[in-house]
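Exam prep: given the inputs below (a chain plus pantoate), describe the expected output before reading on.
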Amino acid sequence: MKLINTLAEMQALKHPEGFKIGFVPTMGYLHEGHLSLVDASKKDCDLTIVSIFVNPAQFGENEDLDSYPRDMERDLSLLKARGVDYVFFPDAQMMYPNGYRTWVEVEGLSDILCGASRKGHFRGVCTVVLKLVNIVKPHFMYMGDKDYQQQSILRIMLKDLNLDTTIVGCPIVREQDGLAKSSRNVYLDPNNRQIALCLYRALIQAQKEVRSGILVAETLAEHAAALIESTGARVDYVKIIDSRDLNFPNEVNEHSRMVIAAYVGKTRLIDNMLLVSP
Ligand code: PAF
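Solution:
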């Protein structure tokens, strides 16, 4: 596994003719969710590149940029064990040198759901991912379904900007009790770790209700929100979206996905699930 921390070196990499390049962009503090993306890339591609960069541009002023968990040594040993070919870890000055002033925004979808409470978040995500894609030039980019809005927005960005990279969405990896794996789970003390399960439980409840014939999106969302709030967690949003375009349907169909963001203590967690099992 080769470590690269300059743009020049990363951009100068030459790959054998016809090689398929898989890319997994991350902010580090890796867990099984990230590693499942690496495994998917290894399976499909000839070469797998992982980036580790805690992108300051996607954190709001009062968010957790400074405390965001980091453990480079552990990350590198996990990636090495998984057979990754290259790890790219630029620093913030390299990605955003003094005088940096170009930003990318996907209109209309960046200020709903997570974008409504995290102003500027998706502008930061789109900008850094576009830069990384330009530097790494992957054929496929592997992203977890947990950040479903992020994945959908980035797909549109790549298409609108005629980039030759395809996003491969991979299933959410969960703890045994259902909690979606997240680097931010490390913030949860034992009590909040228990409370955090309410997101998963609310999703499962909604699936059951759909099976029992309740199809009105607003009713399902209200019930899910009530379950979450009953545990002491605070709902940021509970919505039902159409997985294809992030529109909000009135009635559930096979494309409907419940998406949730909630605060457990100070930790903001997200999760989502298709409401009709495929
Ligand atoms: O999902 C993440 O970890 C980040 O938003 C990403 C895609 C690596 C961009 O910084």
